[in-house]
Amino acid sequence: MSTALLSDAVDGRAADGQWAVETHGLTKRFGENIAVNDVELLVPRGCAFGYLGPNGAGKTTLIRVLLGLTHADAGAMFLLGHAVPSHRDAALARVGAIVDEPRFHGHLTGRQNLRILAAAREPAAKGRIDPALERVGILHRADDKVSKYSMGMRQRLGVAACLLGDPQLLILDEPMNGLDPGGMLDMRDMIKSLVSEGRTVVLSSHLLDEVERTCDAVAIVDHGKVIRQGAISQLLAGSSFEVQVECADPDRARSLLEGTAFGAHVQVGPDGLAISLPENTERDAIAEINRLLVEGGISVYRLQHIQASLEQWFLSVTSRLGDPE
Amino acid sequence: MTISDLGVPAPSPAPTPFPAHVRKDHRGSWIPTWGMVTTRFMELRKRRGLMIALIAVNIGIPVVFLAVRLISHAVDPKSYGPAGGYSIFTTLVAGVMYIFGFIVAAVVGSTAGSVDLTEGMFRHLVITGRSRLALYMARIPAGLAIVISMVAIGYTIVCAVCVFAAPTQLNYDGVTVPQGLSRPALDNWAAAHADEVICDFGYNGGPGLNGPPPSVPCGNGQTSGPPPGAIIKTPKGTITVPASESPAQIRAFAVAVANQDYADYRTNFTVPSTSLMIDVGLWIALEATIGFVVGLGLASLMGQRTVPVILLIVLELILTPVFSRHIITHLINFERAIVGVAMVHIEPGGLPTPFGGGGPNGGGGGPGGLNLIPESTLVASLVIVGWIVFWTAIGAWRMMTRDA
Are A66 and A77 in contact (CB under 8 A)? Predict the structure, then answer.
């Protein structure tokens, strides 16, 4: 898939050809450990982009490098088209970010903390404090000390801090951490609403289900290296094809199907047959399976195409990492 | 699909022009905005424990000390002297406000230099794109506004009490003397009360006082000096006491005695002069500024508050007193480079040194009690400026290079 295709894959909103985040050969070392390894990352504008990886894969380190919180050892990076770190002031002017657990001055109120951050931004940022607090749903607690906030409220305050700069790009590191199910739903809705306003949201997480529900595109990182990236629908489209069949005489059905040219791998389970077909198998295969079974005199009670989840795909991809090359 | 499947990445897009609001807010400038300074001031001011400590030391200790003296004097004026006066002023200034002002300022500086990091706000601030140097520089006026205002309030209270609650008349060597006289005024008063001065004031030779005192009546049938016609030995030879001395000679002798006693009189029985109070106020403010700047830089360098505070207390209470009074030949330039030693050398005249004994200009302990290492005022000034510049640069450098 070309870069143009990747860009167009996300609703066509990045049609101007510019990337919200762009890195080339980005590398960050801590002694012998390479936390960010020659990363080539392209995040289209105007989408929710998931940055996925197991613990210790280098997700947070990459974000810290992008935001100028720590320096890169090699490579080039651009935020909203501005080179970082040479033009970090212009780049970060329209960027909001949460890195790690959001922490604030506990002896100050939420509003006072935001006043400190707004003062470091442009003058208009001060006027965005109350709208930002209202948007994240903690305006009613804005004058309470942050030391009395729950983890979820601090997470929301962190998002409010991101919104002070009217950002085009939000980078959220594990934003669902500490949120209850309702809070996660609110956060998901908020991210979607931010994207609907034309903003780009980069979401680092290991909660694959949340990412699948929230994001349009993802990149998978492991051992500091980006190993896959693209629109979720296209990534999943390339994964294995599974059909669940409930029928009479499953053992005979398995023999029948394994003898065909599908290349199917069939397992008999308590729910019937689980048929795994090779990648890129067409949907017509489902009808063909049904025809074979019926013509073989086997009654079919249920036949269901199982959509591979991002989690399954993630595990299948990352499980290969441990294999010897 | 891997990244290699994506093909060669597209060339980097031309950066869009800097947004207008970025140009306007000078986000890359090292100069902090007024809003950054005021919000930093707010952040420090809202630290209740720090503020209580600051008020207790800079204001509370002098106020309690003076209040006890005021009450004691009001209840039993014969046993307890007035609350104010020169000696109280110098005691409070050199003994309390100077030393504790430095320590408290160092605590505020260390707090300002470390809390953003330890409380997780540093990365929020860096992400705004604001110059890290500007973030550091905002702390200086904000912290100094707190430290200097506290020092000023405490010092103003001390000055007010020392001036307005000073004794109005004093008994000096058995003579009732008006308080607060300048040297010429004391001379005039001595000329008008020559008999009392000659009879009761102490003196010990010196200009105009090498001969025997004139014989004047001292009450109870006694007179001062040897009787007329007596032959006495002096360092310049044997002389005969004249039968009588003129009133002008008697007044001149009394004035000479008063002149010799003026330093002692001033120490005990005058109010601090306006110029002295201004000089001392600026000196204390400079000491507090140094404490704050060094604390800020050291805490920024170390990324924490506790160790810098301990180090600065050790510097102020142990190293400075030791190195200011014990000359170590091989380390004399190192001793001169200690900021506390330099501060003692620019101490306003008339104060005792903060760590005991007389000041360099002949304060309470007098020059005889002085054993400071030698250092010129120019070198002392350069040392002070050097400390301020060095620690500001170190703190700013660490702020700019630290991982957030």
Answer: yes
Work out the minimum CA distance from A139 to partner chain B, whole angstroms: 20
pLDDT band at B355 (very low <50, low <70, confident <90, very high): low
CA distance B322 to A236: 75
Chain A residues close to B2, C-beta within 8 Å: 227-228
Counting one residue from chain A and one from chain B, the pairs whose CB atoms sit within 8 A come to: 166
Contacts of A228 in chain B (CB under 8 A): 1-3
Domain-terminating residue out of B267, B298, B329: B267
Nearest CA in chain B to A39: B3
Number of CB atoms found within 10 A of residue B44's CB = 20
Please indicate, yes or no, if residue B15 is contained in any of the structural domains: no
Residue of B213, B23, B12 lying closest to A3 (CA atoms): B12
- Choose between A13 and B112: higher pLDDT: B112
Taking CA atoms, what residue in A is nearest to B34? A119
pLDDT of residue B281: 94
For residue B60, give the DSSP letter. I
In chain B, the N- to C-terminal Cα span, in Å, equals 35
Partner residue facing A78 (CB), from B12, B27, B125: B12
- Domain ranges within chain A, ordered by starting residue: 3-94+167-236, 240-307
pLDDT at position B12, please? Answer: 40
State how far the Cα of B387 lies from the Cα of B393, in Å rounded to an integer.
10
Reduced to 3 states (helix: H, G, I; strand: E, B; else coil), residue B344 is helix
The interface predicted TM-score (ipTM) is: 0.77
User: How many independent structural domains does chain B possess?
Assistant: 2
Nearest to B73 by CA among B143, B168, B9, B187: B168
**Whether residue A324 has pLDDT greater than 60:** no
Residue B86 and residue B218 share a domain:
no
Between CA A38 and CA A69 the distance in angstroms is: 18
Chain A residues in contact with B129 (beta carbon < 8 A): 88-93, 95, 121
CATH architecture of A240-307: 2-Layer Sandwich (3.30)
Task: Identify the band that residue B163 occupies on the pLDDT scale cut at 50, 70 and 90.
Answer: confident
Written as one letter, the residue type at B136 is Y
B174 and B162 share one domain: no
To the nearest whole Å, the CA of A196 is away from the closest chain B CA by: 22
Q: Using a CB-CB distance cutoff of 8 angstroms, which residues of chain B are in contact with residue A23?
A: none
The domain of B313 spans 26-166+272-401
Give CA torsion, residues A297, A302, A307, A313, to 10 deg. Answer: -70
Q: Report which of residues B99 and A278 the model is more confident about.
A: B99
CATH architecture entry for A3-94+167-236:
3-Layer(aba) Sandwich (3.40)
Contact across the interface for A121 and B130, Cβ inside 8 Å: yes
pTM above 0.90, yes or no: no
Q: Which amino acid is at B238?
A: T
A contact test, residue of B128, B132, B399, B403 with most A CBs within 10 A: B128
Residue A174, pLDDT > 90, answer no
| CA B352/CA B363 separation, integer angstroms | 5
What count of other Cβ atoms lies within 10 Å of the Cβ of residue B83?
A: 22
CA dist A283 and B196 (Å) reads: 124
User: Residue A13's closest CA among A44, A35, A41, A34?
Assistant: A44
3 state DSSP class of B351: coil
> Which CA distances in Å does B124 have to A119, A176, A250, B40, B129?
12, 18, 60, 14, 10
A77: β partners? A23, A84
Residues 235-264 of A with CB under 8 A from B: 235, 238
Contacts of B44 in chain A (CB under 8 A): none
Which region holds residue B229: left if phi is over 0, alpha if psi is between -120 and 50, else beta?
left
Q: Quickly count: other Cβ atoms within 10 Å of residue A113's Cβ.
A: 29
